[in-house]
Predict the structure of MarR family transcriptional regulator.
Amino acid sequence: MTTEGEPLTKRDFEALARFRFGIRSYLRFSEETVRSHGLTPQQYQLLLALKGFPERDWASVRELADRLQLRHNSVVELINRAQGQGLVTRAAHPTDARAVRVLLTKQGEKVLSQLSALHRDELQRMGSVLMPPVWSEFPPA
Amino acid sequence: MTTEGEPLTKRDFEALARFRFGIRSYLRFSEETVRSHGLTPQQYQLLLALKGFPERDWASVRELADRLQLRHNSVVELINRAQGQGLVTRAAHPTDARAVRVLLTKQGEKVLSQLSALHRDELQRMGSVLMPPVWSEFPPA
DNA sequence: TACCTGAGTATCGTATCACGATATAAACTC
DNA sequence: GAGTTTATATCGTGATACGATACTCAGGTA
């Protein structure tokens, strides 16, 4: 059922390339949409990571670094810029005085809602282009 | 069946964030893997776009710009850097004297094969994390 | 208390890279 | 063959992720 170790066929390369193209297309859509609303792609990802954080609607810098797959210092700078635009705020962490609680502002909430709706629609529109390839022993015709 | 226009629930935000996290994780894996082999992420994407080009194993700058979702001048610079490392070459276009045919070198082929195999394995490993969210009227329990 | 080690956050300088603006050459059209 | 479009290339700029470094606080040990 798995193809681990076997060399790739032309079809495999095309599948990998197709998937990468899907990702790039989605990110390109995201970038243009988001920029037309005055945000950078990273800022949108930050807002989304906050609102979409499991069980909560805020996160610490370290948690965000994990979710955004960035180094902590990069996240600090990202937060600084977003804060400068009034999208997020910092507050005291409930239990740890070293840590920071990053929150969405009213404005951040509002923009995020608009943008997220557009992203949901685009995802529905893209459909199978974004599906990761599946390798099976007997590929479908 | 579609949810277009409706406001997003907390669950929706989490689904969007989860998907974005999947993409970031995959790209992060890709970046580290690729860099450990002496390439930049963009260079890997370039090589993959060439080898994975439908029906062919080469492409023009413009075609690459489309597949990589970049401006043409960005692709030119990307090709320059990749060419400097001996990963790709330029050749005359078969029908259009303005255009350029970009090809993989032997070395480019070799590295791409190794990296692509690792990516295929990782995709199999990641499984559902990379699946785009699905919105249905009656979400599954 | 005093100390130590590690974790969380912040600052700064650097390097990369995608882009817009611009240029040149070939193709196409009339 | 003059004008328009398409394909590639060059150059300067801006944004940003990162490593190195520093500071504060938490948690443990004596």
